[in-house]
Design goal:
By secondary structure, the protein is α+β, with helices and mostly antiparallel strands. It has twelve helices and 13 strands. The longest helix is centred in the first third of the chain and has 18 residues.
Length: 354
């Protein structure tokens, strides 16, 4: 069997956190979660090498390079034209047969493992470099034809105008290959996000959970006001619990590759969407992941309606906390000044240093 760097697909359990250059960070993190004993949805990665082989063997890479050479100065308008050109090439091309067959072989195996024909999956972008929100993820994709179409859409999303501009601002090139994750969709009764610090003030002694009915898109996109739980990280005792309005939920479109919005019944909106024991298990998993990595994490989860507790709680995605971890903590005490520094300070300012 070829090495990981030249394989087109790898199952999550075949990878770990060090493999992000082969499958992207999101995929590598899920492999690492399996290694740590955390429950994740079964699935596989389409490698960055597969994306590179696709654009090279189809001639797309050469066409893009030639187009860029004649495009002129970089402006928003020229970037938009280049974006449209690259996306058009990728979505119109056929994936080389050897890559397509390996992707479909993985999907068929996932169908067998799930005991479901045309099992619904997510098609998730996974770059080797973190680019939050710049590339696309597609949910509830069913069947072989739709899977191949959405893989190409996922690849092409690396050439959205926003993604191109983001890379340009980071000094990165135009061409950018990504991994794609193909996990089985969780039949989520409830979804949400675990923050292993308080996201409002960075307090590391707390865990915060946002949760709402249905698929996670409603919470992640800010479509709803979720239930929120602030919990003590040591004792798991509740600090503050707020019932959100939870007006709508995102659910599968029946027999289709799509998700739709549905109203949440009034009595469901008025009560918390997760039980006390589920909150406790979410906190336990959040703390376990933080301890495993040694830093704060944001963790997307789903609670599967078809499974019993605690196996119904599935980790969908993990990523390092990116707001408070970048802020400098101001020291509460000043460094003690030595005698020479005090004398020099008096000579220069005429003010006695304390």
């Amino acid at each position: 069997m070829p090495g990981k760097e030249t394989r087109y697909t790898l199952w999550y359990e075949e990878t770990d956190g060090q493999d992000f250059n082969f499958v992207g960070k999101k995929n590598a993190n899920l492999g690492e979660m399996i290694k740590a004993g955390i429950r994740v949805s079964p699935g596989f990665s389409i490698s960055i090498y597969a994306n590179d082989t696709f654009i090279t063997d189809t001639g797309i890479k050469g066409k893009i390079e030639a187009y860029l050479a004649d495009l002129g100065p970089v402006t928003y308008e020229t970037t938009k034209k280049a974006s449209e050109y690259a996306i058009g090439l990728i979505e119109a091309a056929s994936i080389p047969a050897v890559i397509e067959e390996e992707i479909l072989s993985g999907y068929r195996r996932l169908c067998e493992l799930s005991g479901t024909a045309d099992v619904p999956v997510a098609v998730r972008s996974s770059g080797a470099i973190s680019m939050p929100g710049q590339m696309e993820t597609y949910l509830n994709i069913r069947g072989e034809k739709d899977l191949i179409d959405y893989v190409k859409r996922c690849w092409s999303s690396a050439y959205n105008v926003e993604a191109i501009m983001y890379r340009a601002n980071k000094g990165m090139g135009f061409l950018f290959n990504i991994g794609v994750g193909i996990p089985k969709m969780v039949n989520s009764r409830v979804s949400g996000i675990i923050f292993t610090i308080n996201p409002l003030n960075g307090d590391p002694s707390k865990i915060s959970i946002d949760a709402s009915y249905g698929l996670g898109e409603a919470v992640v996109s800010g479509l709803v006001t979720p239930d929120t739980f602030l919990v003590d990280k040591i004792t798991f005792d509740p600090v503050k619990t707020t019932v959100g309005s939870k007006e709508v939920q995102c659910v599968y479109r029946e027999n289709g590759s799509d998700i739709i919005q549905a109203d949440v019944a009034g009595e469901m909106r008025q009560r918390l969407c997760v039980s006390t024991e589920e909150v406790g298990e979410l906190c336990r998993l959040g703390k376990l992941i933080e301890d495993y990595y040694g830093k704060a994490y944001d963790i997307e989860f789903g609670i599967d309606a078809d499974l019993s507790f605690p196996n119904n709680i599935i980790i969908l995605q993990v990523r390092p906390e990116s707001v408070w971890s970048k802020k400098e903590v101001t020291a509460r005490t000043e460094k003690r000044k030595d005698p020479m520094e005090r004398i020099l300070g008096q000579l220069l300012t005429g003010v006695k240093l304390k």
